Amino acid sequence: MGLAVGVSSCFPPFVMALKLALQAIIITARSSAAVVAAEYRGRLTMDRADQFIDDWAERLLRSAALTVQVRGTENLPPGESFVVMSNHQSHFDIPVLYRALPIRMRMVAKAELFKVPLWAAAMRRSGFIPIDRGDRLGALKSLRLAQDAIRQGTSIWIAPEGTRSPDGALLPFKKGGFHIARAVGARILPVTIDGTSATLPSGSMKIRVGQRAVVTIGAPIDPKSFPKKDLEPLMEAVRTAIEAPLGRG
Fold this sequence. Notes:
Blueprint: H1 2-10, H2 13-40, H3 46-63, E1 67-71, E2 83-86, H4 93-100, E3 105-110, H5 119-126, E4 129-131, H6 136-151, E5 155-158, H7 176-184, E6 188-194, H8 196-199, E7 212-217, H9 232-243
Helix pairs in contact: 1-2, 2-3, 2-5, 3-4
């Protein structure tokens, strides 16, 4: 936080934004290198990965002096793993979620990221799940990995919009994440992120210091309570739960 204030007091806004963006890249690069190094030395475990992720998220939020307010923690029962679904406003959503939710959580990621030697091994060891929508056998393997993760106490984060919203309004939901939730047999935890776009809007590299993000945890939604052959009612229920707190500050 002190670094962010120092930068803002010494440089014009556009220079400060550039420096903060570079700092965020460096923080991410160093954290990634530390994970890969731990894998290379045979020391990477899920617990160690948790530490790397928590440290990365804390450093990013501190660099931007981004404060996070969490609401609805009473909706998060202990000892249960979820398919976490949230809206997606900014690259800062991910570190915000990692700091806001007191659970072990990993993401599904594009299969291309798992094709780099050593980096791929580090991602797998850390519990991240590859997804290749064009490969049926690969998709089935990913589902099995997700099922194993849920059983072992790891929640899976999915952004049902599929990409960041340019204006903060919810984009149409894709069905993939809902198929996964049904397949793994986990409840969906709807989470609303509001305010991260003020720090780093979609499509921009200009980081604004000193903003506030509000994370609202909704009540879990059980896919088993909805028709098996029709995803629309389930998707609408999750969409409503995520959309309702938006803009309430």
